[in-house]
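Job type: complex structure
Entries:
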Amino acid sequence: MRNVRLIARLDVKGPNLVKGVQLEGLRKIGDPNLFAKKYYDQGIDEIIYIDIVASLYERNSLLDIVRRTTQDVFVPLTVGGGIRSVDNVRDMLRAGADKVAINTAALKRPQLISEISTKFGSQCMVLSIEAKRVGSNKWEAYYDNGREKTGVDAVEWARKGFELGAGEILITSVDQEGTAKGFDIELIKAVSGAVPIPVIASGGMGSTSDLVEAMNTGKADAVAMAHVLHYGKMTVMDVRSEAAASNINVRRYHVCPE
Amino acid sequence: MNIYKAQYDLDLSKFQDSEESLETKYGLPAQVKFCKKCVISNQRPNSSVEYKHTKDSTKQTINFDEEGVCDACRLAEKKKKTIDWTLREKELKELCDKHRKNDGSYDCVVPGSGGKDSFYAAHMLKYKYGMHPLTVTWAPHIYTTWGWHNFQAWIGAGFDNFLCTPNAKTHRLLTRLAVENLFHPFQAFMFGQKALAPKMALLHNIPLVFFGENEAEYGNPISDTETAKRDWKYFTSEDRTQIYLGGVSLDSLEKDFGVDSVEFAPYMPANPEDIQKKKVEVHYLGYYLKWHPQECYYYAVEHGGFQASPERTPGTYSKYNSIDDRIDDFHYYTTHIKFGIGRATYDAAQEIRNEEITREEGVALVKKFDGEFPERFADEIFRYLSITEKEFPIAHRMFEQPIMDRDYFMALADQFRSPHLWKRENDTWKLRHTVYE
């Protein structure tokens, strides 16, 4: 039985944790470090930080947040947003990140995927794909936080990303993101069927049954959660125990009360 | 009446660097300033009465105070700090109690497109305040597919709706004239946007109309927000000879362009006597409820399956506001030409006021997106603006070049650039003043 990872996804803009709907209309939630620490205390398996406007503004401002987070959060940390070069990756890893997630820069120069995985190992190279449904079982890859089209088929792009050396795929459904109406299961299934590497389902988690479907039907290896956690609709413990009760092989973890 | 020329001369010497005072168009302030808090410039025109809009009209512009802050930012502060929203909501409940009907008839008219703001307005009135709204919609020039979807989703959330679609030939002609005379491709839409709801209220004997947010939230005089009621001048007119559509008098439209007077009907303002007799009141819901565009978006997604557009709107970064009309891209493109203010400036200014983004982010977004040419629907819009001989046997004779194309459109654009805003440098146009330099 596969091990399933529970991941908290924190989209960051400037000093704030933010949350949008369909990656739009970003609402400020609070201090990202505090939320990361909370999820760590609740027993999250991994954390993903994405600076969602880094490519838009052509800046890269997560380093400080990453440094602070790694002082009190001791689970694997994936960082994305505005990473454009091997040097950027090195800086992120030095700041304490374990992996980097790349979208815009990889679309613009796919070879970057190979450069990163050659230099730092494929386990560190997460290909982030923002996919918008454009027809039945057809999705297009977007960048700049769901703002810009590419004409690139999202599933094809996942396959190519794997071939170039990506070690993991973070697949976000632009349509479902922030709606808490469930994952785009067909999308996840299409991607996990196309690549042999782990697939993280992102965008739409509203309840544990969504998670179960992403695992059992979508064949995802991990789920990224944002809305349900940030808005306090569920805790990581809730998700973990309900998932275990549905025979999903999550890590058994006991949170010590403080 | 002269016919519209195919080519226009442009005196480029006006657009050189010059120590002398530069010509200003539209009565805009000669000195360009940017608000210290947001990114709007003092060139932003206030809403005007479109029926009176001609080539020679001058603009009133947004007020800046002695600290260099615009009225819209001041109003945003007032919304946060001094307005007693509990009291305002109480006033709304009293208004609703006075008008609410439980006899099977409608008790208020809510105009809108089914965008996030009208969705929120109608939904709150019906489900929170127990009203029985009739929604009315003045159709966009050309629907986007997502605009149509959102319109249907609005109806799907439990609303009766009358959709008024003006005859496309007249609409195209009026839009072409508005482009030619005023460089204002959105004008034909604005007539109905303002006048349809009061007219429908008269027609259906519903004496209460709710618009959404007040235009003062975007820079009209702050004093406009001291009352909940909308100024009649925007949707009523007493005198037919004072009405211009596309900058052309009704007489000329009939005589020179072959428009039948019945074809004016959808654009005509309401008769103020009727409004008075039937005691129609036009209110802004934004006076009573603290309006927050982003929250309206959240609300519309949650309660009605509203969809953001599948791509960034050209000229800006946003995907959720004003997305239903394919000509809208051109509307903001023309404001950038005429006033130096494109859509990213409007969007960023609003989001800075609502503390969604910082001024620094706003400046970056303006720099990146403002004034971008809207390629995506351009060919379709140019066809829409073409007055062919076959479709317009009379009107086409008024144009030396009845077919609109990109070259002609850009030549026309140059006619509307004000020398105090634009300069010509190495064969390209540059704004003399920007918020980012």
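Summary: The longest strand of chain B covers residues 133-138. The CA atoms of residues 61 and 254 of chain B lie 33 Å apart.
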